[in-house]
Amino acid sequence: MNLTAGGRDIIIAFTFMINFDAGWTLHDYRAFPEGEMVDPEKISDPGNNMPPDTEMPVAAPVNIPYRPRNAWKGEVRFVDGCIEKNHDMNPFLSRIYARVCLNCEESALRKLEGVRGVPQFIARPTATSIRMTAAPGVPLAKLKKGDLSELCLRRIKETVAEIHKRGVAHCDLHNRNILVDNDEPCIIDFATAYTRGRFPVIGNMIFEYLKRLDLMRLYKVERKFFGRGNPPKMFFLYNIIKGLKR
């Protein structure tokens, strides 16, 4: 299928607008205040209503001290030591949107099974909820220049490369979705991820475009923390939208 560069950009416009890295997406799953993730084994009582040594029942959902900022966002909970994103109580249209996002996330996490630095899929308790392994760490958004090591940057790049090798583009790889714990990175929130082959004929082409969004984010991370890096060559539509936002 031969298409001009402009034609290819038009074809992927809708997908791009959903996944654009400028923060236009509706989903947001920050699990803790200020985006900090915590080891679930260290949490006994998020409400601080019980003595520190009192353990919560493992079979019951433990609400993390976070509530959605609007109707499009879901609750994030600890359940049996794992993370659960839950939209069951959201309004009707929000639940429809959530099903699409969670289907994307499940598809991506299944492809990324066993990848170091990626949460592992556990289950879909309902059509509008998903469970995965917990990810400890602090988001890059909370770190300053000098806080990120060369080793950790290399591991972030290796993780993204493996994600792409498995046929997944994250599409929302901003600094709040990259957690760091003692030089061990973890990339979270695949709710708008694109898996290669989702669309017939043009699926691979879309994947190659969306990979560049991830690579642009990696470039911005390297530039922020180390003052260096070479930006990837971006596609026409990306440059047009970036120009409009200036």
Quickly list its features:
single chain; 246 residues; alpha+beta; Transferase(Phosphotransferase), domain 1; five-stranded antiparallel sheet; three-stranded antiparallel sheet; 10 strands; 34% helix; disordered N terminus
Roughly how much helix do the residues carry, as a percent range?
Answer: 25-40%
Low-confidence stretches: 1-65
What's the SSE pattern? HHEEEHEEEHEEEEHH
CATH class: Mainly Alpha
The helix count comes to 6
Total count of strands: 10
Shape: globular
Ends apart, CA distance between termini? 34 Å
Compute the CA-based radius of gyration: 19 Å
CATH superfamily: Transferase(Phosphotransferase) domain 1
**Could you say what the CATH architecture is?**
Orthogonal Bundle
Largest sheet, spatial ordering of strands: 1-2-3-5-4
Average pLDDT, rounded to a whole number, is 78
Number of domains: 1
Provide a descriptive summary of the structure in words.
With 246 residues, this protein is of the alpha+beta class. The protein has a single domain (5-245), classed as Transferase(Phosphotransferase), domain 1 (Orthogonal Bundle). Helix content is 34%, strand content 14%. It has 6 helices and 10 strands. The chain has helices spanning 5-11, 13-19, 92-111, 150-165, 203-226, 236-245; strands at 62-63, 75-79, 82-86, 121-123, 129-133, 138-139, 168-169, 178-181, 184-187, 194-195. The strands form 3 sheets. The chain has a 5-stranded antiparallel sheet, covered by helices on one side. A hairpin with a 2-residue loop joins strand 2 and strand 3 (82-86). The longest helix has 24 residues, at 203-226. The two termini are 34 Å apart.
